[in-house]
Amino acid sequence: MAIYNLGSINADYFYRVPHLPGPGETLAATDFTRGLGGKGANMSVAAARAAARVVHIGAVGPDGVWARDRLTEFGVDTRHIAQLPDTPTGHAIINVDDHGENAIVLLPGANHAIPETTLAAALSEASPGDTLLFQNETTLQRQAVEMARNLGLYIAYAAAPFDVAATEEVLPYLDFLILNEVEASQLSEETGKDPAALGVKDVVVTLGSKGARWIHDGQARDFPALPVTPVDTTGAGDTFTGYALAARDRGFPMEQALTLASRAAALMVTRVGTADVIPDLKEVTEARFRAPD
Asked: Which residues are tagged catalytic?
């Protein structure tokens, strides 16, 4: 089994700030780092670190060879990451405050120029029962779900950054939908339907410090968050998604997959960074969390 992830690849530029800047405000950053990021790359790394076979489908510019190589180091199959000669690699400017909250500005770059031939070549290797995962930081979503449906793949979608038109276009194809609480509210407002009525077999709504809610065939079950002290929430949702789908791909029941994903996300928020600090499976399974207050 394998996960084919049509996903973004970014250079993440982190700036530690005393608080998130307001309109017109200039702040002096107290620290700066560069790392591998993008929702797609984060999910690929998380799934690979959770012991799944992951094939990443994407693109970088001439300035992004290091990012492709970094994905390879994490165990991701990078044969279907195109290198575009005239398009910059996507990047994100991430402000993180002293409470672990963040504000992010994205340049899509090569993520919006993935050749359709790259997508087709990757999915030509897939087998029925494999997973297609995708988000909203690339193009080709509609083409991908049509190919995946014809191939008998399990289709999973993280509806972020939220775009109602993009989400409504792919909803009829989905087996698994994951969104955060704000995105779920936005989708309900736009469609007039709550998550249980969307027609997707498995819907997961992440609730931040309150945990996550799994809606299966219209029935909801809550998974409480584990008690930790967060220092950086960047990438926690991507880690959750990658771990959940990796566990499912490896044959875990969804309840166990989401429990493992909750543990991985809890560890992730105690670290500063994105793909480079996603915990591996050994760390996640051996982690000890304090008892809830």
From this structure: 238
Asked whether 119 and 57 are in contact (CB, 8 A), the reply is: yes
What is the pLDDT tens value at each position of the chain, 293 positions in all?
Answer: 999 999 999 998 889 999 999 999 999 999 998 889 999 999 999 999 999 999 999 999 999 999 999 999 999 999 999 999 999 999 989 898 988 788 888 899 999 999 999 999 999 999 999 999 999 999 999 999 999 999 999 999 999 999 999 999 999 999 999 999 999 999 999 999 999 999 999 999 999 889 999 999 889 999 998 999 888 888 999 999 999 999 999 999 999 999 999 999 999 999 988 899 999 999 999 988 875 55
CA distance 49 to 89: 24
Numbered residues of the known binding site for K(+):
232, 234, 268, 271, 273
Annotated binding site for substrate: 10-12, 38-42, 137, 238
Do the beta carbons of residue 125 and residue 150 sit within 8 Å? no
Find the helix or strand (DSSP H, E) in which 134 lies: strand 131-134
What would the CATH number be for the domain defined by 3-21+30-278?
Answer: 3.40.1190.20
pTM higher than the cut 0.85: yes
